[in-house]
Automatic annotation (TrEMBL):
Residues 41-288 form the G-protein coupled receptors family 1 profile domain. Putative odorant or sperm cell receptor. Its main location: membrane. Belongs to the G-protein coupled receptor 1 family. The gene is LOC102512973. Keywords: Cell membrane, G-protein coupled receptor, Membrane, Olfaction, Receptor, Sensory transduction, Transducer, Transmembrane, Transmembrane helix. It is a multi-pass membrane protein. SUPFAM superfamilies: Family A G protein-coupled receptor-like (SSF81321). The chain crosses the membrane at residues 25-48, 60-78, 98-120, 140-162, 196-216, 237-257, 269-290. It holds the Pfam family 7tm_4. It comes from Camelus ferus. This is Olfactory receptor.
Amino acid sequence: MDLGNHSTVTEFILLGLSANPHIQALLFVLFLGIYLLTLMGNLTMLLVIRADSHLHTPMYFFLSHLSFVDICLSSVTVPKLLKDLLSQKKMISVEGCLAQVFFVFVAAGTEACLLSVMAYDRYVAICRPLLYGQTMNKQLYMQLVWGSWGLGFLDALINIFLAMNMIFCEAKIIPHYSCEMPSLLPLSCSDISRNLIALLCSTLLHGLGTFLLVFLSYVRIIATILSISSTSGRSKAFSTCSSHLTAVTLYFGSGLLRHLMPNSGSPMQLIFSVQYTVVIPMLNPLIYSLKNKEVKAALQRTLEKYLQHIRC
């Protein structure tokens, strides 16, 4: 394409969630509260898992990384959203936009991998309980976690490397509250065929691929639970994976729907984006603490130790 008659765009305009000042004020209060709860909930999970020796197991090691990823995912988008809700001009530089896309890819991709790793952990715990300690040894679960981070960074690097070659001309309005790759591609006036292929591969391999691993793990888990003769045994086995199943359903449901939907800036598309980048990072610590007796017991022990330390 001949770009000689076009001026190169150096910044984008984010349309945000609403143009109404009164609604923006309400949204600011709402998202500020969500962000503070996200930080408090996930930091509490990190501190409790680190402080309580009863939680020094593979499952809670994965959960601690999930909490850290949730803090990262929320912090990539929400502070900028809060700033824009108080600003008349919602601008972001091309470089800042690409940086935001990169870190969304890293955090979202790593979270998808961690959820699939946690599904495998539950599969081993329920379907092969006698071999759990031997199978899920320290070397393996460390490799699974750092492999998740590595795949997240690799996926982000490939997509951003290709995105850095895109040229943006006249179009500069992003119908969204943050920069995401599906929203950026229509704004380019250069060839984006490679970018589309990379994004499609990311969605199919990194998104649907990890979801398939989760699905297969839970097929085996459910089959094993149904084969247990006693009702109490089935209930106990299901309780060990119900929290994770809830988190998986929410995350993959909203994330995949967001990236498989046509990019139109529709309210439904924005809702799915808000759900998997803002709401789910807040809900995860609540899901894993309210439905998990071990976490609730650890929280109580940690609180008691803290109160004793204050009294002394």
